[in-house]
Amino acid sequence: MLLSVENLDVCYGHAQVLHGVSMHLNEGELVCVVGRNGAGKTSLLRTIGGFMKPAGGTVDFDGQRIDGQPLEQVALSGLKYVYQDKRVFGELTVRENIELAAYPTQVGLDEAIAKVVDIHPKMNKLLDAKAKGLSGGERQILLIGRALIGDPKLLLIDEPTEGLAAIIIGEIINILAAMKSKITMVVVEQNLATVSRLADRVYVMKEGVFSREITDAASIADPSTYEDEL
Q1: 12-44, pLDDT tens digit by residue?
Q2: N or C: which end of the chain has fewer CB within 10 A?
Q3: 8 backbone dihedrals φ, ψ, rounded to 5°
Q4: Three-class SS of 185-212
Q5: pLDDT digits (tens, 9 = 90+) for 94-115
Q6: Going by C-beta distance under 8 Å and a sequence separation of 6 or more, which residues neighbour residue 13?
């Protein structure tokens, strides 16, 4: 088992947002977490990724307990987080954004660029463009590609298709589908069409708890079987 989350409690001040959440991932799985805004999905990812310290419970990754560990240590353990807000260094070029991501991993720039270009060859033509001029889809592709630098074992991806046009959503889905056999992923996603095409398993989150885990492939492929729970 690559990731084990057990009885996770998370609070913002006196407000508890996660209540005893448990989830498990085997190597090579792509697991989607779905739920309405405010259900606790992003808080779950941020806690697994080391950005928040849980009030209770444990997070074990690749045989080591990582909850409460320094953010840098979590990242260097082989876990990468792709933010929801598509945040890049706008005044830097795409090449420079990649170089910054490569530095802490000690991966050479050429190898790092190859990681990004490999998932979307058109990025090769944008290497010298300022990142602030990229479209939302191009920013998302850059962020996913940057996260792959250093060959992490687990990607946490928050709302990768949010705010994107349908044709770009299709490109993001294709990129993630091509990555499935190479890396384990937890994807928070509200677009159920995306979930139905990508997920090996689905966790439905409601008011800070998992109300259901869906493992049957036919049910995952037909979002009408669980969309009324959101």
Answers
A1: 999 999 999 999 999 999 999 999 999 999 999
A2: N
A3: -80, 125
A4: EEEECCCHHHHHHHCCEEEEEECCEEEE
A5: 999 999 999 989 999 999 999 9
A6: none
